[in-house]
Amino acid sequence: MVFRTTPNLGLQLSDVASGLPYWDDNGITEASYRLGNKELGSDGGEYFFVKASADIAATATTGTQVTLTFPAYTVATGAGGFYTPPDTAIKSGDYFHVRRGAYNATPT
């Protein structure tokens, strides 16, 4: 299992949340962990925190390739070079990390 090597709070690299996770206390109404946060995984891969703009089917081993829309940091199935966690179906509106490059590929 790949894990985060950067010292940020936030969703684990392989987890999917149906709502925006990790809200701060004391009346703050914005999450400290934001869409677009970039993390480095223990596998050497780059990961970005995103929101699904459509349902995304699961793909074993590599994850499903998606296109990332900037600056909204939303993703949908496409040929964008980013991949969802392997063997994980994503629902529209879910929050998760995408990896730059397939999960079974050497990081570039």
Could you explain the architecture of this structure?
The chain has a five-stranded mixed barrel with strand order 2-4-3-5-6. It has 108 residues and is mostly beta strands. It is globular, with a radius of gyration of 13 Å. The chain has one domain. 0% of the residues lie in helices and 25% in strands. The mean pLDDT is 88. It has no helices and six strands.
Offer a quick outline of the entry.
This protein is mainly beta and 108 residues long. Helices cover 0% and strands 25% of the residues.
List keywords for this structure.
108 residues, mainly beta, 6 strands, 0% helix, globular
Write the layout of secondary structure elements.
Blueprint lengths: L37 E3 L5 E7 L12 E5 L4 E4 L4 E2 L11 E6 L8
Parallel strand pairs: 2-4
Antiparallel strand pairs: 1-2, 2-6, 3-4, 3-5, 5-6
* Overall radius of gyration: 13 Å
Q: Beta-strand level of the residues, as a percent range? A: 25-35%
Helix and strand run: EEEEEE
How many structural units, i.e. domains? 1
Average pLDDT over all residues: 88
User: How would you sum up the major sheet?
Assistant: 5 strands, mixed, barrel
Largest sheet: spatial strand order: 2-4-3-5-6
Question: Which consecutive residue ranges, at least 5 long each, have pLDDT under 50?
Answer: none
